[in-house]
Amino acid sequence: MDKTGPIYHFPKADADLPITIPFIGINYCLPTYRNERKPAQLTVLAYVLAGQGNVRVDMSAYQPKQGDVFILRSGSYHEVMADPASTEPWTYIWFNIEGSWALNVLEAYRLLSTVVLSDAAVGHLFQQGIEWAETRTMEDMQSELHIIFMKIVVHLSLIRQKRQELLSPPVQKIKEYVDNQMLKPFYTDQLAAELGFSSKQLNRYFKNEIGTTIYSYLLDKKIASAKMMLMETGLTINQIADRLGYTDAHYFSNLFQKKTGLRPSVFRQTFQ
């Protein structure tokens, strides 16, 4: 065994519920721990109690540490590994969430593109889920877990919002512009000219405060939106590409496969 820890199971009582949380638990990871889902049929919400690990969602890699929350969206490639160099064992509480409405909730609270939120003061809510799992009835937990899930999402959204308010004025302008351009073709040179910076300066400022390049930030948001449309609508690949600002559907399909490991058509078949 490359991990230990309690697992609590709550069978689905109502098949019509848009969101269910059938499993929660704690992972105490050995240095060799690794878990891979490709693509994942569920969303994972986790809080790191100790140590540091490695998380990959599609092509992006992160290193969540003690006090961080990580979100692994359904429909994405997930890889979770312990960090052998960590000075203490990687330990985290996790909730497994089923149902595509989990993505709708994350999108509504502007967390759909968030993978790691550092120093997130929500550990008490995760701990509450574990404590209740040990003391409450299975019937109670069916509803209580939904309440805890929503509390966590709201808290994370508020933390994210407050931190964005601390962004420097130039980066705030860049982010607002990029967010509004998500469904249109985007050209860094055009934005740089409008804001009075060079393209190099623009990317440096953005990466220093957001943690990623403008292109990667925008692409992650586009791919997340594409996944939602593939799972939730009957739009064709051409229509989805057009809505995301890509005039060449073949180029969009190649980009989608590069980020997710699947062609859009295969992704849709997997999640229908």
From TrEMBL:
Please verify whether the record's keywords include Transcription: yes
SMART domains given in the database record:
HTH_ARAC (SM00342)
Residues of the signal sequence?
none
The HTH araC/xylS-type domain covers 172-270
Report the superkingdom from the record: Bacteria
PROSITE patterns membership: HTH_ARAC_FAMILY_2 (PS01124)
Keywords in UniProt for this one? DNA-binding, Transcription, Transcription regulation
What PANTHER family does the annotation carry? ARAC-FAMILY TRANSCRIPTIONAL REGULATOR (PTHR43280), HTH-TYPE TRANSCRIPTIONAL REGULATOR EXSA (PTHR43280:SF2)
Q: What is this protein called?
A: AraC family transcriptional regulator
UniProt source species: Paenibacillus mendelii
